[in-house]
Amino acid sequence: MTILRARNIRKRFGGVVALEQGDLALGAGEVHVLIGSNGCGKSTLCKIIGGSVAPDGGSLELSSEPVRFRTPHAAAAAGIGVFYQELSLIPQLTVAENIFLGREPRTAYGLVDRKRLRSDAETAIRPFGAVVGQGFGPDVLVSDLSADQRQIVEILKVLSENSRIVIFDEATASLDSKQVAVFFDLIRSLKAEDHAIIFISHRMDEVFAIGDRVTVMRNGRTVVSVAIAETTQDEIVAHMVGGAYIAAADRKEAPAPLTGTAVLAARNLVGRKLADVSFSLQRGEILGLGGLHGQGQSDLLRSLFGAESLAGGSVFLDGKPLLLRKPSDAIANGIAYISGDRSRYGVLPIRSIFENLVIGLVSKQRPVGLNYGALVKRIAPVAERLKLKFPSFAAPVSDLSGGNQQKVVIGRWLAVAPAVLLLDDPTKGIDLQTKHDLYVILRELCAEGVSIILYSSEDKELLGNADRILVFNGGRIVRELEGERMGEFELYQAAYAAS
Amino acid sequence: MTEHAKTAPSNHTSLTQRLRSFDLRRHTYLLSVVFFLILCGINIALQPSFLQPGVMVSNLSTFLPLILVSIGQTYVILASDIDLSVGSIVSLVNVATVSIIEGMGGTGGAIALGLTTGLGLGIAAGLFNGLCVALLRFQPIVTTFATGIIFAGLALWILPQAGKQVPATVWQTYGGSILGVQTVIWVLTLAVIFALVLARTRFHHALLATGGQMQSAFQTGLHVLRVRITAYALSGLFSALAALCLVGETASGDPLLGTGYTLSSISAVVLGGTALSGGIGGFIGSVFGAMILGLIDNVIFFARLPFEYQGLVQGLIVLLALAGGVFVSRR
Ligand SMILES: Nc1ncnc2c1ncn2[C@@H]1O[C@H](COP(=O)(O)OP(=O)(O)O)[C@@H](O)[C@H]1O
Ligand SMILES: [Mg+2]
């Protein structure tokens, strides 16, 4: 019996099409796997079902009744609970307060019953008691928890809603195998009580261990939906990557030898989320970092920029050892870092475009007596090259679209002509045209001898731009893909099958 | 027997757990209490009569309006918004109430109508702020700065110059006592009880969540709009209460009366350990923060500092208190 049906759901974010045709039919008592490469629209579909994103078109039916949720509250009232990939926790509140947020137990007087809040939370935590690790409890602030513990809180939160339909959007991403086992037991008991579950995961072993049915998405479209018992891992991956499927051998690559001509070389880097990372970057090369979200790629880039500290290993620039204690060490050596998270690491929103572009130059000049004419002469060609659309240099950066803001951030570094450019998911939330412009610029930069390390959460962006791809898992490089072996299928295999 | 054997160790662990999990970040007001006590000590040294009941009550009635405004401001700041119009709401409610009471002849009915209209006006002003900020998504700082100008303009329109009188019963009641307890103590006690009860409601959890991480609060299914609007309405309500206290204290209307309360209330809230970024803190700290600001004025007065240095010393003490808070929260 189908209890939830999504038909032809569409959604755009500005110029980005997140969902073109989302279809899903969920049966009661079923664990329904939703799978597809990064950026194919799974989370967007889930958020639309959960009422936190409004669709542009399409229809939702709950028990054959057409429904439309304007808020997450409305969806929750209709019996839909969502585990959000980016989590919906409040760091300033405790574990207990987070689990029961909005549904706190109350006394006869209508006030929050703190004793019961605490004991209810203890009961909820109990199944995870043995596997949750140190420093966990009802009174601990969520801001003090580790990534896996936060995911467990989000799991407990959505379970405590006791919804008929529960959506888990990459709920196992940071969990270890013991925690996953507990989680799966909980899912099985939900299933036994006839709850319906949408389960998103990239780990194939999990998909086959818990799933009853799988729906595959590709580029914002639902491609196929089949029973797990009637399919295979290769078939699923083939649907995910479409025409790109080739039955390639699953070979392990030997890491490329470190050559003396490398611009940047890293040896045995160890950090908070990095384990023994070694690689070298050639002049004029775009080196891609691939793999699941949060496997150490951003950490590597931030460490190379001196923004995160390394516990061990060494970095060489042009053969000379480099000490990276703070970003200014990296900048002084011609290493630039650009994040897709512009608001946190990039633009100075209320300052003018001019100020945003020249800030890198100014910090290299003498501190007083800026020569504005000379500065404008330096940045005008940069702006032109970026095809920057802007009213005037004096306009604040916040007036620009996201894509153009990102161009400004890149322009800032172009003005100082870096030797190494570190790109940390640089096109997040940017429209296609601007993305394309940026790719062209990256290629031009390479031709001029700039070396680039690119991390992207979208597999297609990596495959389309990188010369080589290092696939990360758990802070390690598990595979290097190059040349003919660098296809969508191989990338997927390396990233997901290895986990 | 088995029951007992089971519960005893769990009680024990919960006590040690509670001790271990005692976290200054959950009790950000404690530092303001310490600072308050220190200032009390200094004040007693400079002014030995400080502890006499009469002096304490008189101090309290001086501090009370700021305490009330600060309690209201706390809710707005906890939701990660800000209310720069509280001073103007104080002025507006003050002149409106006085004008109604005098205009209707100062009878008992006139007084009742004046007070209730004043409270209603404060809530309405807060709701207006909340609607602009939460529903229309205007910037809180700019919006409440602008509405503050509007409210101040309205106050001047109602009563262009300080003046008018309220009947003696009003200030006699406010300055006197009810059922043997000073009226100001009643007001403070009732306000604190109200805030204490409010702190135990689901609304308050939702308020902290909204200020802590608005997107998460929304996705959790909380009514983020309603929460923010309610916070502004509470701010309006407490500002109105402060204005009524000022009616009782000054017995007249003044369209510029509230001017200083806006920034003082924000200082008091921050001194009390509530984070301007929202989600952390509570009204208790703001009460102490407001009293700290009042005591600083006292200390400076009784220290007989030359007039030219008063602002300097006042600023330095506030800075010191803030630095202490930053030091603790960074650890
Ligand atoms: N709030 C947003 N603003 C702009 N773009 C978005 C937003 N959310 C998602 N996208 C874009 O929509 C596409 C689909 O994203 P998502 O649904 O998160 O994919 P998935 O969960 O399958 O990895 C991506 O290209 C992503 O960059
Ligand atoms: Mg996703």
CATH domain fold name of the largest domain in chain A: Rossmann fold
Q: Based on DSSP secondary structure assignment, what is the total number of beta strands of chain B?
A: 2
Which oligomerization state do the chains in this entry correspond to?
A: heterodimer
Q: Report the principal-axis shape of chain B.
A: globular
List the chains of the largest interface with their residue counts. A-B, 31 and 28 residues
CATH homologous superfamily designation of the largest domain in chain A: P-loop containing nucleotide triphosphate hydrolases
First-last Cα distance of chain B: 45 Å
Largest sheet of chain A: 6 strands, mixed
Overall shape of chain A: it is: globular
Q: What count of helical segments of chain A does DSSP give?
A: 17
Strand residues, percent of chain B: under 5%
Structure description:
The complex is a heterodimer of chains A (499) and B (331). Chain A has 499 residues and is α/β, with parallel strands linked by helices. Chain A has helices at residues 42-49, 72-77, 95-99, 114-125, 147-160, 177-192, 204-210, 233-241, 297-304, 327-332, 342-345, 353-362, 372-385, 402-416, 432-447, 459-465, 488-497, and strands at 2-13, 16-27, 31-35, 57-62, 65-67, 80-83, 165-169, 196-200, 213-218, 221-227, 264-271, 277-281, 286-291, 310-317, 320-322, 335-339, 420-424, 451-455, 468-473, 476-482. Chain A has 2 domains: 2-241, P-loop containing nucleotide triphosphate hydrolases (Rossmann fold); 248-498, 3-Layer(aba) Sandwich (Rossmann fold). Chain A has 17 helices and 20 strands. Chain A is globular and about 70 Å long. The termini of chain B are far apart. With 331 residues, chain B is mostly helical. The A-B interface holds A 50, 52, 71-73, 75-76, 82, 84, 87-94, 97, 101-102, 104, 106, 110-112, 114, 137, 139-141, 157 and B 17-18, 21, 23, 25-26, 197, 200-202, 204-206, 208-209, 212-213, 215-223, 279-280. The structure holds adenosine-5'-diphosphate and magnesium ion.
